[in-house]
Amino acid sequence: MASPKFHNTFRQYHRWLGFFLAGIMSVYAVSGILLIFRSTDFMKFEYTTQHTLAAQLDPQALEEALHVKGFKVTGEDASEVRFNYGVYNKDTGEAVVTKDDYPLVLGKLVNLHKATTNSPLFILNITFGIVLLFFVVSAFLMFMPKAKVFKNSIKIAGVGFIFALLVVVFGS
Q: How many of the other CB atoms lie within 10 Å of CB of 88?
């Protein structure tokens, strides 16, 4: 059985790491909330870009040249291709693309949650996940196992675990 000193040490680690992570967690909280609304126009603004491409591109070549996610042709005639984000002039090669996106800083926050191994942000995401797991373990090591608060914390954690499983299973 671990000593009270062991448990107090974990309380200190938990407390100081918690204060450090308060800043990181606030950034993740904001980015997570923004990500929930990613399919809406919430906090997004419209911006237009012009591209000079080769003339006489067919719709498939136009899609490859523009690299626009969700590209769909909505109409085409002899002089232009109309698509869901703009128009391409076949004669001049000019493409005008209008999209909605977050301002720069908010866009960076949203990309924090979308980070993959191709982004340096994945290191922060992995580190954050590991530290959160430390919090899970250290929360139970803060109190002696015979204490009433420890036994109650096990029950509350169990209810939280079951609640999360139910939301995941039935909420999607």
A: 25
